[in-house]
């Protein structure tokens, strides 16, 4: 393999962020039972950010065990609102229900990125952006869902802040890249150091 970095993810958003930054990488989807990990950690009283980090590490370590001497990036993002953990909506109807539940409230996006090499974690970063959603009228919500289409199914919050989803918010407190799913600035700083030692 010519590339020395692997993204342990099938996320188009994360792949786009790395490509746009000029990082050569190979993307490999992981097959991790995220629902089982989330359920177990939730039952044990873990925080959402701890769960995000555990999933990011699980993905990175799993792929790095099969690809020696390569830096493997694993990332995960949760959405938490008033103690409830949200998952990606499986349908437009579920996306509508998510947005109704988030309307007029502030939620967080606990986000973690882990880099592993040779089956072991060598670096990690955590962040928890905070987003305050406007109170959405039924008419606005239907217009948004029609405009966004199936894209609402690709993110846990049923929105893309880089697109029409920005209309849903009145305030955002956090790094833009982190909100998109990958804390690019700390990750790039590490990669410039870490790649020199691969």
Provide an overview of this structure.
It is a single chain. Helices cover 38% and strands 23% of the residues. It is an alpha+beta fold and 198 residues long. A 5-stranded mixed sheet has the order 2-1-3-7-8. A 3-stranded antiparallel sheet has the order 6-9-10, with no helix packed on it. Strands 4-5 form a two-stranded antiparallel ribbon. A hairpin with a 2-residue loop joins strand 4 and strand 5. Helix 2 (34-43) runs antiparallel to helix 3.
Summed up:
The protein is of the alpha+beta class and 198 residues long.
Topology, please?
Elements: E1 5-7, H1 12-20, E2 26-27, H2 34-43, H3 48-66, E3 71-77, E4 79-81, E5 84-86, H4 92-102, E6 106-108, E7 111-117, E8 120-127, E9 130-133, H5 138-148, E10 169-173, H6 176-179, H7 184-194
Parallel strand pairs: 1-2, 1-3
Antiparallel strand pairs: 3-7, 4-5, 6-9, 7-8, 9-10
Helix pairs in contact: 2-3
């Amino acid at each position: 393999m010519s590339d020395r970095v692997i993204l342990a993810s099938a996320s188009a958003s994360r792949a786009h962020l790395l490509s746009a930054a000029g990082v050569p990488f190979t993307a490999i989807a992981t097959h991790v039972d995220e629902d089982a990990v989330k359920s177990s950690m939730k039952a044990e009283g873990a925080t959402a950010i701890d769960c995000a980090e555990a999933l990011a590490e699980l993905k990175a370590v799993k792929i790095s065990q099969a690809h020696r001497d390569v830096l493997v990036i694993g990332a995960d993002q949760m959405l938490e609102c008033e103690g409830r953990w949200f998952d990606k909506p499986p349908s437009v109807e579920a996306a509508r229900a998510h947005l109704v539940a988030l309307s007029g409230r502030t939620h967080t996006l606990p986000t973690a990125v882990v880099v592993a090499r040779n089956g072991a974690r060598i670096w990690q970063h955590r962040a928890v952006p905070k987003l305050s959603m406007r109170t959405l009228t039924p008419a606005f919500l239907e217009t948004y869902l029609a405009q966004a289409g199936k894209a609402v199914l690709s993110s846990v919050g049923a929105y893309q802040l880089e697109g029409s989803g920005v209309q849903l918010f009145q305030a955002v407190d956090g790094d833009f890249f982190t909100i998109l799913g990958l804390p690019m600035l700390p990750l790039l700083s590490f990669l410039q150091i870490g790649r020199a030692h691969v």
